[in-house]
Fold this protein.
Amino acid sequence: MPKSQVEELTDKTISQGGLLAKMYFDMQSENKDDLQPLMTDLINNRLLKSNGVVYCFGSIDEPIKVDNLYSTNAVVTILAKNLASLINLAFTFIPAGVEILKPEKEYVLKHSDLQSILLDITQISVTYSNYILSKVLNKEDYDKVLKDMQNREELGKKLLKKDGVS
């Protein structure tokens, strides 16, 4: 039996460092009719159009009433170009769970890919920290923390340059 185009695309992407995963999402609302469109938008407009996503598709459960809220779940299958893309999706969309489907055995990272992933995680962490601090601290304390973060960034750039990493 010949492989479908989806199977061929999946195999090709995985052979080039891609990953096939399932992400599990949940959503609550006081209005039952809000949930299906919101979850559909998440899958079709946000996840599918995210950087590094080759394709995605999902199934959305019918909303159920829990106490005073309605709740629904979605299981979304995502083919990502690489681990960095999948990590960025997890940080951006905060699924309730992630399951790697393929590759089924080991996943090998090049040194440069690992370096890139760690830098992306650092940037995401700084962005979230900056957001939280801007909401919690007064302007004077926030400006001081921001200056300290900028100094750390400059030091990091100097250290990378010293070690020959650009």
The beta strands are 19-29, 53-60, 64-66, 69-80, 97-102.
